[in-house]
Fold this protein.
Amino acid sequence: MYKKALITGITGQDGSYLTEFLLKKNYKVHGLVRRVALEDGNHRLWRLRHLLTRITLHPASLESYASLVKLIQKIKPHEVYHLGAQSYVDYSFKDEFSTLNTNINGTHYILSALKEFSPKTKFYFAGSSEMFGKVRQVPQSEKTPFYPRSVYGISKVAGYDLTRNYREAYNMFCCSGILFNHESPRRGFEFVTRKITHAVARIKFGLQNDLRLGNMDAKRDWGHAEDYVEAMWLMLNKKKPNDYVISTGKQYSVRDFAKLAFELVDLDYKKFIKIEKNLYRPSEVRSLLGDCRKAKKELKWKPKYDFKKLVQDMVKADLEFVEKEGY
Ligand code: NAP
Ligand code: F7E
């Protein structure tokens, strides 16, 4: 018997890699999408284009409990991967209300709908290293206290607590992955890694002269999304539900990322980068470094990509992208 998975946020970076991963495991994959995505598939479904004939997309809204109930009753999924969220930290300073609304209520509605109509469904919540924010410990593990520095981080702490509470109160199979930054050629263009690799390719092809960045001293523990979606599945396929940090255990600055990305096309990053104060955040997360020993031990999870391979993958893909698309 095949398994059915429902993915919210299927149109995003992780949603597309997770879809590929689950299809390889013979899952029937269902995705929740905003109605506009179906109207404007060319733009909004670009990450799923090669998969569209093999999956079922359902228009629904994370803001509507009723639409989620209908969807869950219709599909009766074995597993729900709740990835849908306003995921851009910087935007959460500009629109606090919609970030909280989508990220907290969306999570709460799904958990509540599952409790009422499909309590045996396993649930994955996309937690984030942004929950650690102004870090209380180095490196950060499942035991590290949270200190979020943005409304985005706050919304993820609330989602994490809701997920844990449904597990404890109603005995449901609910897990949070506390994932550190993960990137790929499918990363959104507003995130710093993709902003850099896209700019590197555009500069190389003579389409752009410089790259404007904010805080280049910020440090992150960067992995590859392809590796990280596997960890989501491993969590839901353990005997018991639990929460896990997923990270590489290595830390690099935004400057390190830019330096390597420019070097890969034989350019010196110092000649192209301009620092803009308005790209700094009102309260920055300066340094994140994960301790994923629990995931390595209990899930037998291990990333295949290191930092250099990740940057190479993204630069190569953006050189091809800019050459083909011309922008
Ligand atoms: P992403 O590329 O930004 O994708 C976000 C997804 O959420 C998109 O499919 C988007 O749909 C959907 N979404 C946003 N607002 C929505 C709304 N109001 N209603 C329905 N869907 C909505 O993010 P990602 O990098 O794949 O990350 C996946 C999840 O992991 C997110 O929850 C993110 O917060 C979390 N996370 C990411 C990282 C990371 O480094 N990538 C690390 C830790 C946690 P549209 O296409 O319609 O906008
Ligand atoms: O910023 C600095 C910025 O926007 C990384 C999301 O997936 O990972 C992501 O959140 C760092 C920050 O990612 C620019 O100040 C400098 O320190 O790429 P980012 P993020 O904020 O770490 C976490 C784990 C998530 O959960 C989120 O969903 O880079 N930075 N200059 C810049 N950042 C951006 N975006 N643009 C710049 O020009």
